[in-house]
């Protein structure tokens, strides 16, 4: 494929387009009867099981998708990412979040320099610092231990760490390590959120440690929240408290110092880490190590690294992120399913060469934990629009089963739904079945389900820090696979930047109007 040829102009794409008509003639009820097909649509790796037999796909589909991957030079693009080439061409950067969790002796080059020693220098600094804080040898300005952490950051400087924290807080080993400690996140700039986050934290007694997490150290919301907290702490404990109570994670150490944070208390990362892919950098590792201890977080990094190696070396037929990515392309670009119940920077309008795309390149992701979704939006996915679902289950609960005499434990109840929902979506319910059940004729249309709705199931053995790392890396790499096949840049986000720059113009005028009474100008009538 010539560099500016769109993937949709290749024979492989056209073959898949034609193939859609074949697939439309099938129903998952019948496809699921073919045990050989189902067996070949299950892949195991390092304790994880992916079952994609409930996709509207046959073995012919997956073969055609592998041909599409070849036409898109997927293997070459994965290698270029791991080799540190500037595949984020619009920002002229490498994309090396895989280096953040690489073993100490690995060699991963960006611009001719092995970045792994730099990564480990910061990891060692975090290990050292978090151990000092946790052991009480690093104390606050009044000599009390720092048990509470508020991580201030937004977007990728918030969501990834929050995801890992959510998973770890009930994991027994991690929970034990977190005893007596609190980790909170402040992202939104709404004063209500600021109040919620400092409620119960007394700077004079309990003491709070603030970690300002910002790749650029310029993000308006984060910097405003950071200034608010700096004021809160220095007005309670005096300006000298800032150095003891505030630390920073950023790629911009000059701005960190200007803000008043001691550079010794700054934890670096690098421009080859995209914001949305930064949880394995100090962005996530620092707050999570303060809460759980570095050794727990190291397990999370090892889980992610295991998937990185798998993604890099496994053949496509057995490669979890590749399979997930290709199936997403199939659902979005061929079957026309625009959403998925289940990370991002796809959703581009142009190819990496700037050519307008005549197809959709990104899906709308949403989801819910447990059966909450079932009691809210599942009606739509069962009878309304077709929305491919990812069901992520855990074989062994993090928590003990309390009710011994019950027919099912809480975990069994949860897993019953994990297994039942994919079949309900795949098989549906026919009029004949309803008639056999003596359903009143007037209710038959309401209780009929067409089925044939695709899903895939990912079963984890347990939800340890290691498995959470695996899960994260699978989903990160799935996004890259989709982007590599669609021929877009999955690592920049100009759409997000547009919103930021428009808010900057509004902010300037708000300020001028408040301080000097200047008239608002240059906006449309509505904004003015
Ligand atoms: O708004 C998108 C984004 O640029 C993300 O990539 C990033 O994670 C987030 O904003 C916050 O940016 P920063 O870490 O520079 O404060």
UniProtKB/TrEMBL annotation:
<dbReference type="InterPro" id="IPR001672">
    <property type="entry name" value="G6P_Isomerase"/>
</dbReference>
<keyword id="KW-0312">Gluconeogenesis</keyword>
<dbReference type="GO" id="GO:0051156">
    <property type="term" value="P:glucose 6-phosphate metabolic process"/>
</dbReference>
<dbReference type="InterPro" id="IPR035476">
    <property type="entry name" value="SIS_PGI_1"/>
</dbReference>
<dbReference type="InterPro" id="IPR023096">
    <property type="entry name" value="G6P_Isomerase_C"/>
</dbReference>
<dbReference type="InterPro" id="IPR018189">
    <property type="entry name" value="Phosphoglucose_isomerase_CS"/>
</dbReference>
<keyword id="KW-0963">Cytoplasm</keyword>
<dbReference type="InterPro" id="IPR046348">
    <property type="entry name" value="SIS_dom_sf"/>
</dbReference>
<dbReference type="InterPro" id="IPR035482">
    <property type="entry name" value="SIS_PGI_2"/>
</dbReference>
<keyword id="KW-0413">Isomerase</keyword>
<dbReference type="GO" id="GO:0097367">
    <property type="term" value="F:carbohydrate derivative binding"/>
</dbReference>
<keyword id="KW-0324">Glycolysis</keyword>
<comment type="similarity">
    <text>Belongs to the GPI family.</text>
</comment>
<dbReference type="GO" id="GO:0005829">
    <property type="term" value="C:cytosol"/>
</dbReference>
<dbReference type="GO" id="GO:0006094">
    <property type="term" value="P:gluconeogenesis"/>
</dbReference>
<dbReference type="GO" id="GO:0006096">
    <property type="term" value="P:glycolytic process"/>
</dbReference>
<comment type="pathway">
    <text>Carbohydrate degradation; glycolysis; D-glyceraldehyde 3-phosphate and glycerone phosphate from D-glucose: step 2/4.</text>
</comment>
<comment type="subunit">
    <text>Homodimer.</text>
</comment>
<dbReference type="GO" id="GO:0048029">
    <property type="term" value="F:monosaccharide binding"/>
</dbReference>
<dbReference type="GO" id="GO:0004347">
    <property type="term" value="F:glucose-6-phosphate isomerase activity"/>
</dbReference>
<protein>
    <recommendedName>
        <fullName>Glucose-6-phosphate isomerase</fullName>
        <ecNumber>5.3.1.9</ecNumber>
    </recommendedName>
</protein>
<dbReference type="Pfam" id="PF00342">
    <property type="entry name" value="PGI"/>
</dbReference>
